[in-house]
Amino acid sequence: MKKTLLGVASILVMSTGAAFAQSNNDADIVQNGVNNQAETFQQQGRGSTDGDIDITQSGARNRAVADQRGGEHDADIEQNGASNFAQTSQTGLDADIDVEQSGSRNISESSQSSNFVDARVRQSGNRNYSNLDQNGRSNSSDALVIQRGAGNRSFVEQTSIGTNASRGASARVEQNGTRNESYVTQYGTTTGSPPVTNNEARVVQNGNANVAMIDQGNYDNSASILQNGTGNTATINQ
Hints:
Layout: E1 2-7, E2 10-16, E3 25-32, E4 37-43, E5 49-58, E6 66-69, E7 71-80, E8 88-91, E9 96-102, E10 110-113, E11 118-124, E12 132-136, E13 141-148, E14 156-162, E15 169-176, E16 184-190, E17 200-206, E18 214-216, E19 222-228, E20 236-237
Parallel strand pairs: 1-3, 2-4, 3-5, 4-6, 5-7, 6-8, 7-9, 8-10, 9-11, 10-12, 11-13, 12-14, 13-15, 14-16, 15-17, 16-18, 17-19, 18-20
C-alpha cells in the first residue's frame, strides 16, 4: 500500500498491517510553505515487514514525528527552514532513520529499540540539539550525528540488554561551531554469554565552547575525542 500526500498544512497518516498478513506500507508526505506539520504511524501485523516513511518539509513552522512498529522500517525526514522539530521512533529489527534539518530552531530526538539499527542525523543552522537512543539485545547499532552551526548539543545512548547480549555499538558525532557539547554512552548487560564488547565511539568538535565525554561499559572498547578551538574539555571513561 502506498500513500503520497502533498500539502501545506497538517497531515496525519496511519497504516496498520493486518495480523498474519504480509504487508509493505509506504507513506510519502511533501509539504511546501508556512504552517507545516506531518505525523505518521505504521504498525506491521504479525509476519509482515517493510514500512517506509518519507517526509519532506520546506518553509516556516515545520514539525514531523514518525512512529513505526514492526521489522525492516525506514524513516526519512527532511526539513528546511525555521522552527524545525523532527522525532521518529522505531521498534523492530533492521530499522533505519535518516533526519536532515536546515535552518534555525532544530531539535531531532530519534529512538530505536531492537537489533541491527542505523540512525543518521544532520543539523545545520542555529539551535541544534539531537539526542538519539538505540537499545536492543545483541545490538549492532550504528549512529551518526553531524551538527553545524550555533547551539549544538547531542547525547547518544546505545545499550545492549538481555540474554546473550553480544556485539556493542558504533557512534560518531561531529560538531562544528559554537556551543558544542556531546556525551556518548555505550553499555550493556547480559545474563548469558558472551558479554557485550566492541563498542566504538568518536567525537570531533571544531569551534568554541566544546565539552565531550564518552562513557563505555565492559571491554574491548575503542573511543576517541578530537577538539579544536576554545573552551575544550574531554573525558573518556571505559
